[in-house]
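worker-03 picked up job from queue 'complexes'. Input manifest follows; two sequence lines, order preserved.
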Amino acid sequence: MIDAAAGKAVNGVELGVVIFFFTVVAVLGFLAARWRRSADHKHIHEWGLGGRSFGGFVTWFLLGGDLYTAYTFVAVPAALFAGGALGFFAVPYTILVWPLVFIFLPRLWSVSRKHGYVTPADFVKGRHGSRSLSLAVAVTGIVATMPYIALQLVGIQACLDVIGIGGNGSTFAKDLPLFIAFAVLAAYTYTSGLRAPALIAFVKDALIYLTVIVAIIYIPTRIGGGWAHIFDAAQTRLTTPNPTTHKPAGSILLAKGNAVPYATLAIGSAMALFMYPHAQVGVLATKSRNTVRRNLAALTAYSLMLGVIALLSYMAIAAGFTTKSLNGNNQHAVPALFDWAFPSWFAGVAFSAVAIGALVPAAIMSIAAANLFTRNVWVDFVNPNATPQQQTQVAQAVSLVVKFGALAFVLGLDATSAINFQLLGGVLILQTFPAIVFGLYTRYFHRWALLLGWAAGIGYGAAVAWNQSSATQHHFGSQVALIPWTHQKAYIAVTALVVNLVVLIVTNLVLRAAKAPAGVDQTTAADYEHEDEGEGRGDLPEITPVVV
Amino acid sequence: MSSGADTPNPPPRPATPLISPPRVIAAFCIVAPFVAMLWIPTYNEETPKLLGFPFFYWYQLLWVVITALLMMVAYFAVERDRAVRRAARAAGGPSAASGSSDATTPSADGTAQDGEGSQ
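worker-03 finished. Artifact:
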């Protein structure tokens, strides 16, 4: 039964279903350009933030797109499949995201609305009066987003491999379906902007919830023995020593010394998530200050689903899959489980859920990176007089460039442990936390100190990450490393943030003592409580005309 | 800490205390998940099991639900606090000092709103 997963031949039914859903989504993506279109549709606020008009309902889906990605379906289960409990850090991560959002995002929303900021770097520039700090935040955002987009491609590829297209053929034949999927994605993002992923998110979430609910009820009956058996099987497999290294892969509980990595992975990822430009896009696109806060309780539903999906990896173990039977790629665990457990037509639905679940965030991410480049690199440093229409054109073009950059990432690097992509992005993006979040509350920190702290954090984090080797790669092999002068490992992002903060505090004292010139602050205290009353009122999403 | 905290140098305002009961409640709701999730020795256990799930797994999944409830409570607490402050500001003008006691009624429209635009 296990060999079926290796995908010797193309499964026509599965492929057909995937192509069907993909076509539906592509049509929706192009139609999205007309959805709630305003007279001013060429403005970058329209393309890049959907006209800033999304209410709670759309936002729930859109923000879900930030969490529910190939990260959830492919990368996290692969981590549990390979190493057990440590990979479950994704659950506390997505729990801690919500209180963090509750604290600071309404302030960011208010000040952004008041001053028309489209990106976090816009805010940094306005608050600290520093173009270099703004550039640092923008470049970090663009660079950190690329591996995250790459992760989405890896997820799509995992499904295609299990369906049986890809795998053994020539490089071109292998990657052709991925190219096609990506070209379509790129095209509708180009034409429709943020409206496309917002609209497709409905289809995506419907498919995902359907898949997960069916999986959680049906697959245990195929395996037999209930959840107790699933956990027992996982524990047996994980604690069996590897014949070559003579070490067990892990355990279903955290081993000694893994508590700190677990905690730092959780809190580091949580603090990093809303530093990503794409996550902030989802928030800034809302029509009122309270849209996000009011939806937080509902948004936790995503965290619950993520936890359940993570446990599909243990089901895959209980069903008898091993790294070897997955062709050495743990990321096939969940797709292969679907392929084994479900009839072909429903496996096709499940693969569509995963693939579309990767396309939506990839679109949002590339739009966010494009916004960043346009506003904070192009306009600030290249063409300060660009009209909003020209800005939109640049952003559209950059959204293509970013996606092909991510594609190069996937094709060029070893993608068997894609969670490392996302964690590496986290190491970088977390270093912008002080400039953005501290800036929302205080101007105590000097702009140059923030920049120096950022540089120290990035420098330390990148150097340490580069030096981590693993069995499969010499660099970037792990995102958990020893804390200097200790025997304790921790997520590099958090250690680097500590370096960042130490440098920030010390240099800040020096700069303040030396009375270095602070930049001009565009904002006032009241801006952070600003509520936009009257604008965007009452326009609930009109989705009926375009849903097919 | 509390979500709606003022920046260090707020303009002169009527004296609604910086720390109010709703803000304390909201702060508790926000801090609790961090304490629970980062204090790993409290839950890195196999037993007690629930429906075959080791404690480690069902406890964390349970905290997703608890966090959802806490976020709901925090939202209503913050909304109430904001309504109270707004009423105090409106009623008191620049010299008022005691606007908070009779301001519970206007909070109804602060909590039950379903769209800022309607105000």
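worker-03 released lock.
Chain A has one domain: 2-442.
Residues 1-7, 534-548 of chain A have pLDDT under 50 and may be disordered.
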